[in-house]
Every structure is written in structure tokens, then in C-alpha cells.
Amino acid sequence: MYEITDLKPGRAIQIDGEPFIVLSSQFGRKSQSKANMQCKLKNLKTGSIVARNFQGSEKIEPADVGYRKVQYLYNDGTNFTFMDLENYDQFTLNSELIGDMAGYLVEGNEVDTLVFEEQPIGIQLKPTVELKVVETMPGVKGDTATGGNKPAKLESGLSVNVPLFVDEGDVIKVNTETGLYMTRVS
Fold first, then answer.
1. Would 4-62 and 128-184 be classified into the same CATH topology?
2. What is the mean pLDDT of residues 120-149?
3. Largest Cα–Cα distance in the chain?
4. DSSP 3-state assignment of 170?
5. Taking the CA of residue 153 as centre, how many other CA atoms within 13 Å lie in the half-sphere pointing to its CB?
6. CA 59, CA 139: separation in Å to the nearest integer?
7. Which of 156, 160, 153 minimizes the C-alpha distance to 134?
């Protein structure tokens, strides 16, 4: 069991049978009152974010959350199918759980799946992914890195702004947290 002072960002806890991850926590104590911890929590099953105050002597149950390497196989429009790389079992996650992360998924790529009580409940992307540019305006001789940006459509369907020198067929690195172009790989 965790004490309220153990509630640090990134810690997985369980409330009423649901897994949550602590996004932020702030310790507080008002004069003559018990200590408390104000936390912002993300439900790992639904993705919803809630605020919750924990009181001084409250005990919080840790969540049995882990990660497994999986391979993204395909999307049928409403569900995303993955394969566990340890036992080759396939499972699906619905598009609501995947959300905006769908723009970074390419068939055959490996990602981490979030597992709660041996059931996959979500995925976690790497901080950056490499994606191929499939559609953009052609570059012109003399375009430089500081000369401006243009839109580019990537193999996953995601659109990002790229420097003018990036051409179709180039592989670029994209930050999965911000959705911004980082660098050209090839």
C-alpha cells in the first residue's frame, strides 16, 4: 500500500478496481488540519483525467500495471489489431483507446502495450517515430532548412509541416508528443 507521500508523477495506482497513473501531485497542509495530496490522475482504461485529493492517513493500492512489446498488425476501421511478441497472441484495442496515436502507427511497427491484470488496456508510443513522406510539394534547388515549411502527408495518414527541402520518399523523424517534424533520416 502507498502512503499519500508516495503519489509521485508516473506512479500507477488503483482506485475502485480501475487503474490510474499520477500525472501531477502537490502536497499541502492547511493550518491545524491534516496533510493532503492533490493529484491529477489519468484513468488508464478510459483516458479520462480526474482531480482527486487524498487525506493524510489514507492508504492507496498500487496497480498491477506492466508493459509488453507488441507488433501493430492492422486497423479495420474501428479496431486496431496487435500481436504479442512473446506468445504471438493477437488482441484488439478500439479506436477510442488509440485516439490520436493512430497517426503514428504503421503496420509491422513495434510498440509497448499497457497491461492491467494481464489484459491489454492501451499502448505507449516511443518519444519519436520514423515515417515515410508519401505526398508533398516537390523541393526546389536552393531550398534550405530555414526557408519555410510545407505540409506533408506521411505513410500513416498523419500530416505534418516539414522544411521545404523534404521530398516524397524521404523518411523523417516525428515527435509523438508534439506531432512536430524533428529531422530527416534519409
1. no
2. 81
3. 71
4. coil
5. 5
6. 60
7. 153
